[in-house]
């Protein structure tokens, strides 16, 4: 993911045509820093959240997080 990537978040109890929030990636960790996080600004909630690279991979694998573009 890069800065500006648009993402969609689904909770586990949503059906496949429903979603909870849309977000845009506003910070991407540098490759040399393993303890840095991706930062996503959420549209509906109006909040920011931090996600480790491992959390991103897990959420993508579980279809909770979807990269739109």
How would you describe the overall organization of this protein?
The protein is mostly beta strands. The protein has one domain (6-67). The chain is built from one helix and five strands. It has one helix spanning 53-61, and strands at residues 6-9, 21-27, 38-42, 48-51, 65-67. The protein has a five-stranded antiparallel β-sheet with strand order 4-3-2-1-5, covered by helices on one side. The mean pLDDT is 86.
Quick structural gist:
Helix content is 13%, strand content 33%. It has one helix and five strands, in the order ββββαβ. The protein has one helix spanning 53-61, and strands at residues 6-9, 21-27, 38-42, 48-51, 65-67.
- Class by helix and strand content? mainly beta
Provide the residue-averaged pLDDT: 86
% residues in beta strands: 25-35%
Range of helix content: 10-25%
Count of separate DSSP helical elements = 1
Distance between the termini: 9 Å
Query: How is the main sheet built?
Result: 5 strands, antiparallel
Q: How many individual domains?
A: 1
Shape: globular
Low-pLDDT parts are none
Please tell me how large the radius of gyration is.
Answer: 12 Å
Order of helices and strands: EEEEHE
Number of strands: 5
Strand order of the largest sheet: 4-3-2-1-5
Write the layout of secondary structure elements.
Layout lengths: L5 E4 L11 E7 L10 E5 L5 E4 L1 H9 L3 E3 L2
Antiparallel strand pairs: 1-2, 1-5, 2-3, 3-4
């Amino acid at each position: 993911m890069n800065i500006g990537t648009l993402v969609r978040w689904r909770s586990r109890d949503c059906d496949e045509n429903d979603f909870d929030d849309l977000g845009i990636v506003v910070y991407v960790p540098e490759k040399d820093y393993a303890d840095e996080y991706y930062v996503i600004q959420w549209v509906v909630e109006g909040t920011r959240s931090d996600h480790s690279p491992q959390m991103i991979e897990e959420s993508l694998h579980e279809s909770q997080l979807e990269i739109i573009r």
